[in-house]
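Problem 12. The chain below contains 417 residues. Write out its predicted structure in token notation.
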Amino acid sequence: MILVLNCGSSSVKYQLFNMSDESVLAIGKVERIGTSTAILTHVPRDKEKVKITREVLEHSAAIRMILEILTHPQHGVIKGASDIRAVGHRVVHGGEKISESVLITSEIKEVIREYIDLAPLHNPHNLAGINAAESLLPGVPQVAVFDTAFHQTMPAYAFIYGLPYVFYKKYGIRRYGFHGTSHRFVTRRMAELMGKPYDELKLISCHLGNGASMTAVKNGSSIDTSMGFTPLEGLVMGTRCGDIDPAIIPYIVNKEELTVAEVNSMMNKHSGLMGISGISNDMQEIDAEYRENNKRAKLAMEIFTYRVKKYIGAYVAAMGGLDALAFTAGIGENEATVRQMSCQGLECLGIKLNLSKNEKVRAVETEISTSDSQVKVFVIPTNEELLIARDTVEVIKAQSAELGGMPEEVTFSMPSS
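Solution.
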């Protein structure tokens, strides 16, 4: 069994996999960590969903609660914690030092700590989850799967900014990109659906959610991605502004007399779909208002999809063509209007959407292009947790091979794909 943990500032999401067939035995989350009214939501396979409210003040207590429910006589799915053979952790930032999933050691934890400055909202909590899991499951291998790792194949001309080079050398200021685990899962799945070698295709993955990014994958490698030094750059998002003229910032600071913290909050929490529409950061609500001819909802929808369309065009140019395009994450999987408007007018690039099929698809893996479209267009629900579990197995296998073989108690059999 592989336990996958995704630790945020006030939450821990988890899934438990049986890797013999990649089935999910349980899924859940602990929310409102740090309060006396934290909530555990636990959904075990073939059993009733469970909700428990209790005091959970830090991540160690949350993970202890997860282990208790996984092994509970009534609500659990395993006999004991010893059934968990390894733990896979989602970690946001590994900088330039991490280009693949790795076994967690003291050196890897130091790298995660080193990049806290670049991911202050994520890396500290990822590290807290790792420390808690190590303490509660002593001797169980822990594996880190980094959001930034997939993008380490980008060429320098794609990740270096037009700033004095000294800032890159001194402070690591460059494009890092995020959502790498999702983009890797989706692009690999595209290749499988097409029945073609992954390393011979030109693919674009559109991860459109409250946070949104796009990635160009050429011959199996990420060559460019829309998020940059931070997740603020690129597409217009739920509350993030995306690409803007940087000169706007000092101009607004002077006009509004804002502090650095206030302008940073404005760009990250009060902009994007929320700031433009004045309605919501939820695309479902904006789409409903758009259909009622609300002018600002219409503007928000047009700006969002126009930015997606521009990045598609840019990445087709960067790769010298395109074989397939996929929409994923909350908006990409569920919002037919967004998919239609993002592809509208791209027939010149060989992209033709089957409008009737597109309108019916919600969060189901489906091809939505026409039969004569030169470029395949898919809706592919992302599954970052499964990819983390797969990587965990592979890292443990590789480590065991180096040590002369895998002990019986941590042997895995992977299903045929």
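Discussion. Residues 295-319 form the longest helix (25 residues). Students who got a different answer should revisit the alignment rule from Section 12.3.
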